[in-house]
TrEMBL record:
It comes from the Bacteria. This is Pentapeptide repeat-containing protein. The keyword Transmembrane helix applies. The chain crosses the membrane at residues 216-238, 250-270, 276-295, 307-325, 331-349. Keywords: Coiled coil, Membrane, Transmembrane, Transmembrane helix.
């Protein structure tokens, strides 16, 4: 070791960069007496690793322009170390990355790679040395942090702890890169490293590891605004979106979503194009996209597909919003945050329940206005009474408006709202694609009851399925249940229909059955009165289920934001926790 037996003074010194290879090296020095670096400026890298300070070590007013190395440093008297007014404002995540890039090609690296032509082997050695420097840097920041904690200077210790977490994040990045190239890498260990990497990345960009209160406040406001805008979009655009969605083929939707995902990947690629973290994100997005496409291809119910795509849109919008928060352009930041707080103020006045993380999970109806209830209020008295009658299995419908009291009308509306699911199942019977077939059956019931069964069989044979006969049999039994029949759902989605037995088909020749069938199918004559009711019920269900699905994710995000807010506020408070 280089021993300094006497006092050393480097007061008001300026250590300037001479050339690219120069570095101020105090490593392995042993300061046996006091050493003073008061108001010294280090313009380039300075290396104090494995130094020993036996007495006073004064770094008062020192300014580090680049990352210093205090790895394995020993301070005999931690309370004798003066770190007051040390300026590390120039040190950030990029400076940590640059330190590793500028220093890992040391003599040891050059000796190991000398004469090696294999790129894979060079890459392996390169990552090993980068990993070593990342760990050394992490230890360097830990040493100073521990000294400050010993001195009960927790506020300054937080700044060095933040740098320590930067080094840890970079260490995880390098670790992932190394594990990615190993054939027998433990996939579960990789997932754990990746998760830690994501966590550190998110905390760094949203709150600077609980050190920047304004940053996490902006992000929290952003998440509230994003969810509010998403719900507003669902309510305002669900009708045109549903029509647009129903008219499109799965392949076209696949292309549209594919373009959205591709644009997100491009944004991330230019942000972190050499990072294994980016590759992991690409993989996850690709897997989610493949699953969505498979579900879209095999599952034919448009309501569930719509919910699935809306949830996907919300997840992508979170990612895009996260990307916007990381844009460094000052003008963009000012405009973006101004618009953010403007919209937040609007939601705070009109939809303050958004601030509650659990609102959408337990009571999604509080976040949106029911289109079904609004449509119900627009119906005439006759239509409302007829709907209430249908729900009570009374199909003796009335063409003219009924003279009923306001209280009775409200009771009828309450009955309809309470039995919305049953009404939906009944109205499904009058699906437009089966309307012409039902009218044929109704015509036979009104004119030639002896031929009803034959007409139904002809329709089934023409359609190459048994959908009409099964639906009519369901009508005869008034089996409009709110419970989900999984088998029936699978069959309907894959266009499989169960053929009725001869005994079941014989029911269509019985007079009682024909009368029931006639009264139910007569509802087709009133269809104009109920036009759009089934559609708005479906739209309400889509919005409600979408809110319930996305609110789970929103609750987790908002709870984490609230936790970060209180932790950041507590860490930066002079009041002891």
């Amino acid at each position: 070791k280089n021993k300094f037996k006497n006092r050393c003074y480097f007061i008001d010194s300026m250590f300037l960069k001479v050339d690219k290879l120069s570095k101020f090296n105090f490593s392995n020095a042993n300061f046996q007496d006091n050493v003073y670096f008061n108001n010294t400026h280090f313009k380039d890298y300075v290396d104090f690793h494995e130094c020993e300070f036996e007495k006073i070590a004064c770094f008062y007013g020192v300014k580090f322009y680049k990352t210093p190395n205090f790895s394995a440093c020993y301070f005999k008297e931690p309370k004798a170390v003066n770190l007051i007014n040390v300026d590390i404002d120039k040190l950030d995540f990029k400076s940590v990355e640059k330190y590793i890039e500028d220093n890992y090609k040391d003599e040891s690296y050059k000796n190991e790679t000398k004469g090696i032509q294999d790129k894979k082997e060079i890459f392996k050695i390169q990552n090993e040395h980068k990993l070593r420097y990342a760990k050394n840097l992490k230890d360097s920041f830990r040493v100073i942090k521990d000294v400050l904690i010993t001195q009960n200077n927790t506020l300054e210790a937080q700044e060095w702890h933040k740098l320590e977490l930067y080094a840890k994040e970079k260490e995880n990045h390098i670790n992932l890169s190394v594990k990615d190239r190993e054939k027998n890498a433990d996939i579960f260990k990789n997932i754990l490293i990746w998760f830690n990497c994501v966590l550190l990345n998110v905390y760094r960009n949203t709150s600077d590891h609980h050190n920047d209160f304004l940053k996490i406040l902006n992000f929290t406001v952003g998440m509230i605004v994003l969810y509010g805008v998403f719900i507003f979009f669902c309510q305002a655009c669900i009708e045109p979106y549903s029509k647009f969605f129903n008219e499109l083929k799965s392949s076209v939707i696949f292309i549209i979503i594919g373009i959205l995902v591709f644009l997100c990947c491009i944004m991330f690629y230019f942000n972190r194009k050499k990072s294994i973290f980016a590759k992991s994100i690409f993989f996850i997005i690709a897997m989610v996209f493949i699953v969505l496409y498979l579900v879209t291809y095999f599952y034919k119910t448009n309501e569930y597909k719509t919910i699935l795509y809306l949830v996907m849109c919300y997840i992508l919008s979170i990612y895009i919003c996260y990307f916007f928060f990381n844009i460094k352009n000052i003008i963009f930041n000012i405009v973006f945050k101004f618009m953010l707080y403007l919209v937040f103020l609007f939601f705070l006045i009109n939809s303050s329940q958004l601030i509650n993380p659990f609102t959408g999970v337990f009571s999604s109806d509080k976040l949106y206005e029911s289109k079904f209830e609004k449509r119900l209020n627009d119906l005439n008295t006759s239509a409302i009474i007829n709907l209430a009658s249908i729900l009570q299995n009374d199909f003796n419908l009335h063409l003219k408006d009924q003279n009923i009291s306001f209280t009775e009308l409200n009771s009828a509306k309450a009955l309809i709202i309470a039995n919305k699911e049953k009404l939906k199942e009944i109205l499904k019977v009058y699906d437009d694609k089966y309307e012409s077939d039902y009218k044929k059956v109704l015509n036979e019931l009104e004119n030639n009851t002896s031929n009803v069964k034959n007409v139904i069989e002809e329709i089934d044979n023409k359609n190459n399925n048994s959908v009409i006969s099964v639906q009519l049999n369901q009508i005869l039994n008034f089996n409009f249940s709110q419970e989900i029949d999984i088998l029936y759902m699978i069959k309907s989605n894959f266009f499989i229909s169960e053929k009725l037995s001869p005994e079941q088909m014989a029911l269509f020749d019985q007079k009682d059955s024909q009368d029931k069938l006639k009264s139910v199918l007569a509802l087709l004559k009133f269809k104009s009165s109920f036009e759009g009711i089934l559609e708005v019920i479906n739209q309400d269900e889509i919005i409600q289920n979408t809110i319930k699905s996305t609110s789970v994710l929103y609750s987790i995000i908002l709870l984490l934001c609230i936790f970060s807010l209180q932790k950041t506020a507590r860490k930066n408070s002079i009041v002891p926790s």
